[in-house]
Design goal:
With about 675 residues, this protein is of the alpha+beta class. The protein is built from 4 helices and 34 strands. The longest helix has about 40 residues, at about 455-495.
Length: about 675
Amino acid sequence: MMMMMVVMMMMMRVGSGATSGALALVLVRRCLLLGPLGLRSAGAQDGNGCGHTLLTPHSGTLSSKNYPGTYPNHTMCCWRLQAPAGTSLLLAFGDVDLEPSEHCAHSSLLLTDTQTGTAYGPYCRNSIPSAPLLVTNSSTVTVLFNTTSHRSGRGILLSYATSQHPDLVSCLVRGTHYTQEHISVYCPAGCKDIHGDIWGNPSQGYRDTSVLCKAAVHAGVIADELGGQVTLSREKGITLYESAFANGLRSKRGSLSEKRLVFHKACDNVLEVVAFNASSWWHEVDVLGQDRAWVAERAALSTTGHSWAAEPGAKAAWLELDLGTRRNVTGIITKGSSEQHNYYVTSYHVSSSRDRKNWRPYRGSSGQEDKVFEGNADSQGEVSNAFIPPIVARYIRVTPQSWHQSVALKVALVGCQLARVRAPRPNVPSVSKEVLEPTSRPDSCTPISGIALDPEKAGSTLLAMLLIGGFVLLCSCLLLLAFLCYKKRKSAAELNCGITKGYPKLESSQVCSLQSLPAPSLSSFPMAPTPGDLSQTHLPEYAEPDLVQVSPSSQTGPCTFKPLLEEGYTLPLVLSHYDIPGKHHEYAEPLPPEPEYAMPFSEPEPLGMHRSTCSIAGPAGCSLVQYQTPALRPGELPAGVEQTGSPCSEGSCAWPGRCPLAHVYHEAL
């Protein structure tokens, strides 16, 4: 009844007068008549023209017979694709190469939707699909491939997936079909046995001319019987790509390419094996009488020399690996005996256990039969196999099924630590934590709205905050104490010290010696000797400028000039009639310039010549100014000074108005 309804809908759609419509109707009838032969279940096929086919509920691949060779004459194949309820089907046309004919009468591809009565096609070489991806609105699609007499043509290759994977690609897509650096596509199931070459290996990457989905199977990113999402990068190519055997595929050795394909696989680290155990081991005695022990510890892949080997003639030999704790195991790497021996395992089973008592065989994605892994083809090369889905266990046991000459094996496991499980907590964002056993937590802590609190980390966080706060407070107190000491010391120096630099040491009540200054190496200009002054040392060639001399018997007087701030001197306490607030400036303006009579005093004087030191009184209240002048002739006075008739002693003249503080002036040399 259902078949008649479909036929009626197709007749109404194509019309009775159209040649192509009549041909399509005939093909539909032939395909529908195959229903009782095996197309009642989802993902079924029937006919003598069917090639490689792998149909799953979520994705699959189908091809004509002998693809990519010439398809045979007078054949037909019908596939029925069924997606889960609530989804629709997407079809990717990988290749449609059928001998051209009018209205595709000789060879054709026709797709029909039995739910809505929609037909797509017929297609052949001169009538190819307009887009590489066909989006349907149905969860059931019938694919009919029909041929008559022809001379050429590769046939067809199609892939499908559900509407949940709009980035579906064909099994024939290569890395050179993309230009972006990062790629994310969905590979259908069944691409492993499709014709196409790959160059490289999982560790190096693959040449960009490699078939993308087939390389993903070789790298262990997806399982061929499931398909899946693939993420990879197109990186800079390398000089040489080495071949490898992995997951039932042999890659080729390839030359330099501009780009290479690198697949992203997060859990892919070599796991540490704590201990090895075996059903038996071979104690060999060679022809020279030397002993060689093929013990279980020799099964580590990193060991040099011979491997583990079971006792010859032993049945049901096995090798056990202890990981110490449960791990997420995603793959296994096997190798033969060594270079000197030609022993290796060609196929094996894998089982796992968590307690070493109950063992569970690995069955892969099918879950029906124990999976047989393809082993080595020689004693030197390494072979990789992926566990999809991964194994979560502590103990892994390898049971050889077939071998060459003797059971000998080296093994390494690939994977990572267990993924952390998020423990849900009410009203608090969950914190990542590994949960091995169900645990319960008291509900005594009330979370604060808007603040994520972790009870296990709250104590350590609070302690860290207290330590940091205490350290900051201690540093602040030390800085404040240092600042107060500096201010106190500076105030005491300003009240008790005078200014001195380069002058002979005076009494502590009159001057404060600056210890930070270097020892004085220059002396002031010579002055008139005072009573009790016994310092008659030889004067250097140059003197330090701006020096102040204070008489021991006199009171400290005001300075005429303000010392420079950068010199770092401290001013003495000045007590004089100038210290009236608001009346006078703190320092008086410089004296008017005097005639330039100063001469370098340290130059050697000719015989018969000598210098005279005169004390010239300035305006009233000013300090005496001493100049080094040439010796005056008898009867001469300095310019600008009237003769007072006062007697002069040899080498010096005295004028009234002597002040207690004398300031030394000199001219720059």
